[in-house]
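RECORD TYPE: protein structure
NAME: Integral membrane protein
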Amino acid sequence: MAGTDGAVTAEDDDALYVLTAALLTPANFPSALGDDYPEACSALDLAPLADGYGLVMGQDSDGARWTVVIDDVSLVAVAIASWDCGMEYDLSPDEDSVVAALPGWPLAVAVAAPGVPAPHDPAPEVAERLPLTPPDTSTWGPAQRRLGADEIALQWTTWREQIDDDAFVRRAGEDSGDRPSPEASAGAESGEGGLRAGIRRVLAEVRAYVDSPPPLGRVRSSFAPGDARTLRADGPGWSMVARTDDIAFVLLDDEPGEVLPVGRGPELPGLLESLDKIAVRPN
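PREDICTED:
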């Protein structure tokens, strides 16, 4: 996320100094909030509308943290794209687009508005509900696991360069020299039978998604170089990141900090192709 260096939406006591914004849509929602779009919406007590929302996070004139939820998704998307390009953009939502004003921030924000008190939660009599707080990522768990998968998707080349394809064959290949199945490849690379069981469970659940579509946003497809797509799938206790023309990486709640590669083998290409067909894509 990027900020606006203290843009102001109004010139009165109700002014919101906008610090940053995020999308909350089926294809693009903060992974820290949930494994799928409905779960992420539930974290903010919002109905999972098909068109999604924009989340505008800032401080009021007293320094209190607020998250303004708007239904003008395109406005927030343009603002984020501008900030990512290093351009200024005054994100000033129209009052008619405001769905809710929620106390607190659902995500960690590292900046603060100048000229106002330090960020703090609004007083209870003003907030009228418990303030939103970012998920705890200080210890390994679902939120940190999903954020780890986000990082792999963003830095795919860096992670991929650490994997030697020959290692899959050398350590897991059979006497015939055939490339091993995804399960064998992952187990060999991790070097432990227990992890093999975890990979088998994840792949079985991913295959089940193809036959019985999961909640919206559990499988997402985004741009990748060439004709490939980057796939992201999540489920109870696991996350998977893959390229349709390459391998996959799996993270498990039961294996803190471990990133487990899954070789292509004979099965993974077809599975990824099927997943891409049911995945949600950005508009």
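COMMENT: The chain has nine helices and ten strands.
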